[in-house]
Amino acid sequence: MKDTPISIAGGARMRWIELPGHDPARVYVHGLGAMSAPYYTHIATHPRLAGHRSLLIDLLGFGLSDRPTAFAYTLEDHADALAEALTAAHATGAQMIAHSMGGAIAIVAAHRHPGLITRLVLADANLDPVPGPPRPGSSRIAAYTEEQFLSHGHRETAAHVGPHWWSTMRLAGPEALYRSAVHLARATTPTMRQMLLDLDIPRTFLHPATDTVSGADTLRAAGVRLVPIPAAGHNLMLDNPAAFVEATAAALT
Protein backbone atom coordinates (compact mmCIF):
# COMPACT_ATOMS: atom_id res chain seq x y z
CA MET A 1 0.00 0.00 0.00
CA LYS A 2 1.20 3.53 -0.80
CA ASP A 3 -0.04 6.99 0.09
CA THR A 4 0.61 10.69 -0.39
CA PRO A 5 -0.50 13.85 1.48
CA ILE A 6 -2.91 16.07 -0.47
CA SER A 7 -2.27 19.80 -0.11
CA ILE A 8 -5.84 20.90 -0.88
CA ALA A 9 -7.07 18.64 1.93
CA GLY A 10 -4.73 20.05 4.57
CA GLY A 11 -2.28 17.18 4.28
CA ALA A 12 -4.84 14.36 4.52
CA ARG A 13 -3.44 11.23 2.95
CA MET A 14 -4.82 9.51 -0.10
CA ARG A 15 -3.96 5.81 -0.25
CA TRP A 16 -3.86 3.11 -2.87
CA ILE A 17 -2.83 -0.49 -3.41
CA GLU A 18 -0.21 -0.65 -6.15
CA LEU A 19 0.54 -3.62 -8.38
CA PRO A 20 3.91 -3.48 -10.18
CA GLY A 21 4.22 -3.51 -13.95
CA HIS A 22 5.03 -1.41 -16.97
CA ASP A 23 3.70 1.99 -17.97
CA PRO A 24 1.34 3.51 -18.78
CA ALA A 25 -0.16 3.07 -15.36
CA ARG A 26 -3.72 1.90 -15.02
CA VAL A 27 -5.71 3.63 -12.31
CA TYR A 28 -8.90 2.09 -10.90
CA VAL A 29 -11.39 4.40 -9.17
CA HIS A 30 -14.40 3.25 -7.12
CA GLY A 31 -17.88 4.69 -6.75
CA LEU A 32 -19.82 6.30 -3.90
CA GLY A 33 -19.51 4.39 -0.63
CA ALA A 34 -17.09 1.90 -2.14
CA MET A 35 -13.34 1.29 -2.21
CA SER A 36 -11.22 0.07 -5.07
CA ALA A 37 -9.66 -3.21 -3.89
CA PRO A 38 -12.90 -5.21 -3.40
CA TYR A 39 -14.26 -4.01 -6.74
CA TYR A 40 -11.18 -4.24 -8.92
CA THR A 41 -8.50 -6.64 -7.63
CA HIS A 42 -9.87 -9.55 -9.66
CA ILE A 43 -10.04 -7.27 -12.71
CA ALA A 44 -6.55 -5.72 -12.47
CA THR A 45 -4.92 -9.12 -11.89
CA HIS A 46 -6.76 -10.93 -14.68
CA PRO A 47 -4.34 -12.25 -17.35
CA ARG A 48 -5.97 -10.01 -19.98
CA LEU A 49 -5.17 -6.88 -17.96
CA ALA A 50 -2.23 -7.81 -15.72
CA GLY A 51 1.28 -6.58 -16.41
CA HIS A 52 0.70 -2.85 -16.26
CA ARG A 53 1.50 -0.83 -13.18
CA SER A 54 -1.91 -0.61 -11.52
CA LEU A 55 -3.14 1.72 -8.77
CA LEU A 56 -6.32 0.72 -6.95
CA ILE A 57 -6.91 4.12 -5.41
CA ASP A 58 -9.34 5.17 -2.69
CA LEU A 59 -10.78 8.66 -2.92
CA LEU A 60 -10.45 10.98 0.05
CA GLY A 61 -13.08 10.09 2.63
CA PHE A 62 -13.39 6.47 1.49
CA GLY A 63 -11.76 3.10 2.01
CA LEU A 64 -8.13 3.27 3.07
CA SER A 65 -7.76 7.02 2.57
CA ASP A 66 -8.10 9.70 5.26
CA ARG A 67 -11.51 11.24 6.01
CA PRO A 68 -10.92 14.99 6.50
CA THR A 69 -14.07 16.65 7.84
CA ALA A 70 -13.09 20.12 6.56
CA PHE A 71 -12.89 18.94 2.94
CA ALA A 72 -15.86 19.98 0.76
CA TYR A 73 -15.98 16.73 -1.30
CA THR A 74 -17.22 18.42 -4.47
CA LEU A 75 -16.56 16.52 -7.68
CA GLU A 76 -14.00 19.19 -8.56
CA ASP A 77 -12.27 18.77 -5.18
CA HIS A 78 -12.17 15.00 -5.64
CA ALA A 79 -10.80 15.44 -9.16
CA ASP A 80 -8.07 17.82 -8.05
CA ALA A 81 -7.08 15.52 -5.17
CA LEU A 82 -6.93 12.57 -7.57
CA ALA A 83 -4.74 14.57 -9.95
CA GLU A 84 -2.43 15.59 -7.09
CA ALA A 85 -2.09 11.98 -5.94
CA LEU A 86 -1.33 10.68 -9.43
CA THR A 87 1.22 13.43 -10.01
CA ALA A 88 2.95 12.56 -6.72
CA ALA A 89 2.89 8.87 -7.71
CA HIS A 90 4.42 9.65 -11.13
CA ALA A 91 1.35 8.10 -12.70
CA THR A 92 0.25 10.88 -15.04
CA GLY A 93 -0.67 9.87 -18.57
CA ALA A 94 -2.62 7.03 -17.00
CA GLN A 95 -5.31 4.80 -18.39
CA MET A 96 -8.24 5.17 -16.00
CA ILE A 97 -11.01 2.70 -15.25
CA ALA A 98 -13.67 4.35 -13.11
CA HIS A 99 -17.07 3.25 -11.80
CA SER A 100 -20.20 5.28 -11.06
CA MET A 101 -19.25 8.39 -9.02
CA GLY A 102 -15.61 7.56 -9.69
CA GLY A 103 -16.39 7.86 -13.39
CA ALA A 104 -17.86 11.31 -12.88
CA ILE A 105 -14.74 12.34 -10.97
CA ALA A 106 -12.49 10.87 -13.66
CA ILE A 107 -14.25 12.93 -16.33
CA VAL A 108 -13.83 16.10 -14.28
CA ALA A 109 -10.17 15.25 -13.63
CA ALA A 110 -9.49 14.72 -17.33
CA HIS A 111 -11.23 18.02 -18.13
CA ARG A 112 -9.40 20.04 -15.46
CA HIS A 113 -5.99 18.39 -15.86
CA PRO A 114 -5.13 17.75 -19.53
CA GLY A 115 -2.53 15.03 -19.92
CA LEU A 116 -3.44 13.36 -16.63
CA ILE A 117 -5.49 10.64 -18.35
CA THR A 118 -4.78 9.20 -21.80
CA ARG A 119 -7.60 6.64 -21.99
CA LEU A 120 -10.85 6.57 -20.07
CA VAL A 121 -13.06 3.57 -19.38
CA LEU A 122 -16.26 4.53 -17.58
CA ALA A 123 -18.31 1.84 -15.86
CA ASP A 124 -21.92 3.05 -15.70
CA ALA A 125 -20.70 6.51 -14.66
CA ASN A 126 -22.90 9.43 -13.60
CA LEU A 127 -23.11 11.99 -16.41
CA ASP A 128 -26.01 14.22 -15.35
CA PRO A 129 -27.76 15.67 -12.29
CA VAL A 130 -30.16 13.28 -10.58
CA PRO A 131 -33.72 14.64 -10.94
CA GLY A 132 -36.93 13.74 -9.20
CA PRO A 133 -37.62 11.90 -5.94
CA PRO A 134 -34.87 10.14 -3.99
CA ARG A 135 -33.64 6.84 -5.40
CA PRO A 136 -31.10 4.38 -3.99
CA GLY A 137 -27.62 5.86 -3.82
CA SER A 138 -26.61 9.49 -3.97
CA SER A 139 -30.03 11.12 -4.29
CA ARG A 140 -31.42 9.23 -1.28
CA ILE A 141 -28.49 10.34 0.87
CA ALA A 142 -28.68 13.88 -0.52
CA ALA A 143 -32.35 14.15 0.48
CA TYR A 144 -31.21 14.61 4.10
CA THR A 145 -29.64 17.76 5.42
CA GLU A 146 -26.11 17.17 6.65
CA GLU A 147 -27.27 17.52 10.25
CA GLN A 148 -30.02 14.94 9.67
CA PHE A 149 -27.64 12.55 7.95
CA LEU A 150 -25.09 12.71 10.73
CA SER A 151 -27.69 12.29 13.46
CA HIS A 152 -29.82 9.48 12.01
CA GLY A 153 -29.55 9.30 8.21
CA HIS A 154 -26.26 7.44 8.31
CA ARG A 155 -27.83 4.69 10.41
CA GLU A 156 -30.92 4.57 8.17
CA THR A 157 -28.72 4.36 5.08
CA ALA A 158 -26.93 1.36 6.55
CA ALA A 159 -30.25 -0.44 6.93
CA HIS A 160 -31.36 0.52 3.42
CA VAL A 161 -28.33 -0.35 1.27
CA GLY A 162 -27.86 -3.88 2.58
CA PRO A 163 -24.79 -5.79 3.77
CA HIS A 164 -22.84 -5.90 0.49
CA TRP A 165 -22.67 -2.16 -0.13
CA TRP A 166 -22.46 -1.40 3.57
CA SER A 167 -19.35 -3.59 3.87
CA THR A 168 -17.39 -0.77 2.20
CA MET A 169 -19.71 2.16 2.87
CA ARG A 170 -19.21 1.73 6.63
CA LEU A 171 -15.54 2.68 6.13
CA ALA A 172 -16.43 6.06 4.60
CA GLY A 173 -16.41 9.19 6.71
CA PRO A 174 -20.04 10.25 7.26
CA GLU A 175 -19.30 13.81 6.11
CA ALA A 176 -17.47 12.47 3.07
CA LEU A 177 -20.33 10.15 2.16
CA TYR A 178 -22.97 12.84 2.56
CA ARG A 179 -21.17 15.69 0.81
CA SER A 180 -20.00 13.48 -2.05
CA ALA A 181 -23.58 12.28 -2.58
CA VAL A 182 -24.94 15.83 -2.56
CA HIS A 183 -22.45 17.06 -5.14
CA LEU A 184 -22.86 13.97 -7.30
CA ALA A 185 -26.64 14.48 -7.38
CA ARG A 186 -26.19 18.18 -8.25
CA ALA A 187 -23.51 17.43 -10.88
CA THR A 188 -21.13 20.03 -12.26
CA THR A 189 -21.25 23.09 -14.51
CA PRO A 190 -20.81 22.20 -17.31
CA THR A 191 -22.15 18.74 -16.68
CA MET A 192 -19.94 15.68 -16.71
CA ARG A 193 -21.71 14.69 -19.93
CA GLN A 194 -20.61 17.87 -21.69
CA MET A 195 -17.07 17.49 -20.39
CA LEU A 196 -17.01 13.90 -21.67
CA LEU A 197 -18.20 15.00 -25.10
CA ASP A 198 -15.43 17.60 -25.26
CA LEU A 199 -12.53 15.37 -24.21
CA ASP A 200 -9.99 14.56 -26.90
CA ILE A 201 -8.91 11.13 -25.63
CA PRO A 202 -10.22 7.60 -26.30
CA ARG A 203 -13.36 7.13 -24.20
CA THR A 204 -15.43 4.01 -23.59
CA PHE A 205 -18.69 3.82 -21.64
CA LEU A 206 -19.62 0.39 -20.27
CA HIS A 207 -23.24 -0.08 -19.23
CA PRO A 208 -25.70 -2.85 -18.31
CA ALA A 209 -27.06 -4.38 -21.52
CA THR A 210 -30.62 -3.92 -20.28
CA ASP A 211 -30.17 -0.15 -19.82
CA THR A 212 -30.85 2.52 -22.41
CA VAL A 213 -28.04 5.08 -22.36
CA SER A 214 -29.39 8.61 -22.42
CA GLY A 215 -28.06 10.66 -25.33
CA ALA A 216 -26.41 7.61 -26.89
CA ASP A 217 -26.34 9.03 -30.43
CA THR A 218 -24.68 12.24 -29.27
CA LEU A 219 -22.08 10.30 -27.29
CA ARG A 220 -21.28 8.09 -30.27
CA ALA A 221 -21.05 11.09 -32.59
CA ALA A 222 -18.44 12.57 -30.22
CA GLY A 223 -16.39 9.37 -30.40
CA VAL A 224 -17.48 7.72 -27.15
CA ARG A 225 -17.71 3.95 -27.55
CA LEU A 226 -20.78 2.47 -25.84
CA VAL A 227 -20.34 -1.15 -24.80
CA PRO A 228 -23.19 -3.16 -23.23
CA ILE A 229 -22.25 -5.68 -20.55
CA PRO A 230 -24.71 -8.61 -20.50
CA ALA A 231 -26.09 -10.20 -17.33
CA ALA A 232 -24.98 -7.25 -15.21
CA GLY A 233 -26.45 -4.48 -13.12
CA HIS A 234 -24.75 -1.31 -11.93
CA ASN A 235 -21.79 -3.20 -10.43
CA LEU A 236 -20.63 -4.45 -13.80
CA MET A 237 -17.23 -5.74 -12.66
CA LEU A 238 -18.80 -7.85 -9.91
CA ASP A 239 -21.85 -9.06 -11.81
CA ASN A 240 -20.06 -10.19 -14.98
CA PRO A 241 -16.29 -9.94 -14.50
CA ALA A 242 -15.44 -11.90 -17.64
CA ALA A 243 -17.36 -9.54 -19.92
CA PHE A 244 -16.05 -6.54 -18.00
CA VAL A 245 -12.45 -7.68 -18.46
CA GLU A 246 -12.89 -8.29 -22.19
CA ALA A 247 -14.54 -4.90 -22.76
CA THR A 248 -11.92 -3.10 -20.69
CA ALA A 249 -9.02 -4.85 -22.40
CA ALA A 250 -10.45 -3.93 -25.80
CA ALA A 251 -10.84 -0.31 -24.72
CA LEU A 252 -7.23 -0.07 -23.53
CA THR A 253 -5.59 -1.48 -26.67
TrEMBL record:
The organism's place on the tree of life at top rank: Bacteria
Pfam families (UniProt xref): Abhydrolase_1 (PF00561)
Protein name: Alpha/beta fold hydrolase
GO molecular function: hydrolase activity
InterPro entries recorded: AB_hydrolase_1 (IPR000073), AB_hydrolase_fold (IPR029058), Carboxylesterase_BioH (IPR050228)
Domain AB hydrolase-1 residues, every copy: 27-130
Keywords for this protein: Hydrolase
